[in-house]
Structure formats: structure tokens, C-alpha cells
């Protein structure tokens, strides 16, 4: 995982140079970054969303090369397992992530594992979304 921060790339040409230089094939735009190269980010104030309140969260973390962790924290009655961004950061650190980045949560984050929901969107109503992170394996099912 490679991060760029707001204001770091001045124009389209610099952004394209960053993409080319780092051989980027896929990118996300939400945030904020929780952990960058093993260092927890201190400023978790973010202009979009409820950053300091306990709210549903989702994040992607990198444990090592080609080894990722996806996390969703939501509230499904009667449980209230929501957390702040700092709480999400603490979980990703505890799990050993060297890089971690928040995604949208709540009504847009759902994990599917082997064709079944593993988590559920808030209030049972999913927003229309167009992005998906998909992991696949070339290992035959009988060898998993």
C-alpha cells in the first residue's frame, strides 16, 4: 500500500507521475490513513464524516506483501460495536497492520466471504455503491 496525502500532488501531471513511478494499478480515495509504514497517524480529524464519534467503520490494512486484512465495525441491534477512528486505528495496530486506511462504513461497507454476507450494513439498507475490493485465489477449493 502506498499513500499520497491531500496537497502532496500539485496537478494532474504530478499525480500521473506518482502513478507511473509507483506502478499503481488500483487506487482508493476516502481515508484518512490510519497507519503508514508502521507509524500510527496522529491527526485523525478528517473533514468528511463523524471522526471523533463512535460510528460504523471499515478499513483495509496491510500485514505484509500481498497479505491484507479487511475490517468492518457496525451496529446491529442489540449490539453497539461502533468505534472512533482512533479505535479503528488501535484495532489495526493490534492485528499487526503496517499500513491501514479507512474506507466508507455504515451503509456502504459489507464483507462477503464465500458467497455469504459476513457483516451487514447499518439499518439493513445499503446505499448504492460502485466500488468493490475483490480478493481471489488460484488455489483449488479442495486444497484450501
Give a quick set of tags describing it.
144 residues; 2 helices; 7 strands; 5-stranded antiparallel β-sheet; single chain
Average pLDDT metric: 81
Q: Helix tally?
A: 2
Question: From N to C, what is the helix and strand string?
Answer: HEEEEHEEE
Radius of gyration over C-alpha positions, nearest whole angstrom = 16 Å
What's the number of domains? 1
For the largest beta sheet, what order do the strands appear in spatially? 2-1-5-3-4
Q: What is the β-strand count?
A: 7
Helix content: 10-25%
N-end to C-end Cα span:
26 Å
Structural class: alpha+beta
Description of the molecule:
The structure is a single chain. With 144 residues, this protein is an alpha+beta fold. It has one domain. 14% of the residues lie in helices and 21% in strands. It is built from two helices and seven strands, in the order αββββαβββ. It has helices spanning 12-21, 85-94, and strands spanning 33-36, 39-40, 57-64, 67-73, 99-103, 112-113, 116-117. A five-stranded antiparallel sheet has the order 2-1-5-3-4, covered by helices on one side. A two-stranded antiparallel ribbon has the order 6-7. A hairpin with a 2-residue loop joins strand 6 and strand 7. It is globular, with a radius of gyration of 16 Å. The relative contact order is 0.17.
